Each structure stands twice: as C-alpha cells, then as structure tokens.
UniProtKB/TrEMBL annotation:
PANTHER family: LECTIN, MANNOSE BINDING 1 LIKE, VESICULAR MANNOSE-BINDING LECTIN. One of its GO terms (molecular function) is D-mannose binding. Keywords: Disulfide bond, Lectin, Membrane, Signal, Transmembrane, Transmembrane helix. This is LMAN1 protein. The gene is Lman1. It is a single-pass type I membrane protein. GO terms for biological process: endoplasmic reticulum to Golgi vesicle-mediated transport. Gene3D superfamilies: 2.60.120.200. It comes from Grallaria varia. It is found in: Endoplasmic reticulum-Golgi intermediate compartment membrane.
Amino acid sequence: DAIPSADQIRITTSLKSQKGSVWTKNKSIFEYWEVEVTFRVTGRGRIGADGLAIWFTEEPGLEGPVFGAADKWNGVGIFFDSFDNDGKKNNPGVIVVGNNGKLLYDHQNDGSTQALASCLRDFRNKPYPVRVKIAYYQKTLTVLVNNGFTPDKDDYELCAKVEDMVLPSQGYFGISAATGGLADDHDVLSFLTFQLTEPGKEAPTPDTEIPQKDKEKYQEEFEHFQQELDKKKEEFQKEHPDVQGQPGKTTFAFSLSADDVFETVSDRELRQIFEGQNRIHLEIKQLNRQLDMILDEQRRYVSAVTDEIAKRGASLPGQQEQVSQQEIETVVKTQEEVIRQVNEIRNSVADTLKSISGAQHPGSAGVYETTQHFNDIKEHLHLVKRDIEHLAQRNMPSSDKVKCPELPPFPSCLSTMHFIIFVAVQTVLFFGYIMYRSQQEAAAKKFF
C-alpha cells in the first residue's frame, strides 16, 4: 500500500487495516552503520494506530502482522508504537526488539516482554518532522530521537541503548507501517544510511560497493519512475483544469496566491504557540544543566567538609574539638539537606520538560518568569555556598586560613544558629515556590 512521490513515501494512508513497507534491494555490507530517518505520523484523532517500524534484517521482509512486516525476523526492529494494546498507558513509545528468526512478536503486551530497551516518546502530529538516528557500533545499538518540536536538526535526545547486541554482518534495511481500527498517515521523508569505521581504518570506495551495471539499472528505473509521475501529473491537470487557473479564471488564481502569501489568524497563533513552546523547552534544558552543575558543587563541598572532620579528629583536644566537630557535623547534615532539595528541583525541572513536550502553552510570556524563578534559586544556593566557606574558614586555625587578596575583610562570620535559620528560610521559600508552580499548572490545565 506504499505510495511514492517526488519528496516522500506514504507507507500507509489514514484508512483502516492498511499495511505498507519499503526495503533496500541490495544487502548492506557494512559491519558498523548508522541510519537517519525523517518521518511524520499524522492523524485526526487523539489516539492513532498502529505504528511504524524501522528494520535491519538478514532477509528482506514480506508483508505481515508486525507493523506491516513479517514475523520471525532475524535482526532488529525499532518500533514506534502508537496504540496502547495492554492498557498500561505507555504509548506512544519507542521499543527495540531483537529476534533470531524464531520468536513471535507479543502484540498483546506491546512487545514489553521482549523489549531490549524502550522509551516514551510522542511522535504523532508534531509541528516539525520527527528525526531518528540509529547507530550500531561495536555491538552497541543506540537510538536517538528528535521529538519534532524544534526545527533544530541536531536536537537529539537519547531514547534507548542496547549493549552486547549481535546483528547479522550483512542485511537489508527497511521501514514499514500499519493501521488498525484507528488510522494515521505514515510518511517517510528521508532514509539515509552511513557506514561507520574504526579510527585509522579506511572505508571501501563507493565503486567497490555498487557495480556500474547496477548503477545504470537504478538510474533507468529512476528515470522511468519520473516519466510515469510526469504523465500522471499531466493527466490530473487535464481532468482538473479548474485547479490550474486557466486564462479565463484569473481572479480565482489570484485569490489562491493571496491565501498562500498571507497566513490566517489561527495559523499565526498556532505558529506563535510553537515558537514560544520551543523557547521554553530550550530554556528549561539549559536550567537543568545548570542545576546539575550546582549539585556537583554541593557534593564536592560535602566531601571537603567530611575530610575536614577526619583531619580535626586527631588534632583538636578536649571541649574545643567536640564543639567544632559538632558544628561541622551540623554543616554536613545541612549540606545533605541542600543536596536533597537540589535533587528535588532537578526532578521537578525534568518533569516540567516532559510536560512541555506534551502540552501546548500559548506565547512566550512564561519564559522570563520561569527563568527568573530559577535564577533566584541559583542565587540562594550560591549564598549558601559562600556562607559555608566563611564557616569553614572560621573553624580553621589562623595559620591555615585562606585569605582572599585585594578584598576588604568581612565584618563578621556566620554563626551556627544564623546558618540554621538561613537554611530554614530557604526551605520555606523552596516549598512556597513549589506550591506556586503547582497552582500555575493547575490553572493552566483548567484553561486548556
């Protein structure tokens, strides 16, 4: 049922119980390889079916029940499953399933019992084409996905990774799709295959891979296909002359060109929604990276203070040692609490990033507000870091104190009681911020 055209191949149309597939004619002789696939899955309903599959198998696949291809394949299939057969709400998702030619695919459980790796990704009805990069190198299969929310072609996220995976040394690449009771259009825009070689190893030249006769044969087939396509276009123009804007219908042609030039209000609003959503997505990813850096800094400080406790254990005598050790233990516990809070912030950012990928919030007004809130949190954590440095310098002997050159002396050191009060205030602010964000999200859900 696949329908080729000049710029894409429609594997299946949005009709019930359709199947289609496209396979390479020659075997791939690459030991290590990488494929980049660009596709669209679009449908009118909120839920689609069944899905799309990318294949590397020892033999070219035939039509069958596994996303339009035959079962019991020898190789690997990367399945983009749209429909939730097992009712576990884990679809749309990406599943990697290997087979030695003897296993039957478990449709009822969406392949979860046979999956080598998987991830949840919504690939339906995206503003931009979804891009997938699949690499097999030194028995490791890696799947990277661009979710289609951004026009950036290099904005990939790791979806799945399978190690110690043995695939056939030669095989065929293919892509297939199928529909069921629900239906989507499955369109493939590009399918690029690359050979991966080890450093220092020369790759074979293209002339040794494809004989000249095969090149001429493929060129003839392409020209024949192009001629058939041109004939069909001419026949369509003769059957539908009103579409082309004949000489007696100049006004109609002008109205079409005007609609093409000027976007409607709904199109403009939709474009602004996606642009704002893309900016929010990038901002939150940047903030997530910054929080990871802050978390690493806090862990290093905990390690440094723990080492200080061990050093002071044998050096400070009597009551002074006991008091200093108690203060440092208090600092360690407080730092552990700070690390826990930063972890919670990081998880919150990750959840927000996932919700941004699945929801559409109009405009970009929330970018500045979100950035400002997280900048405030970052400043507070830097204050905690500075106060801990002051406390550590106060407890060190005068000969070991680190002096900052060219800076005026600080008026006073932070006491333990003040530090605990400061951390308590930060904790209250943090929970207040979480409650504020929850109220904002609840209001947004009610609005939509």
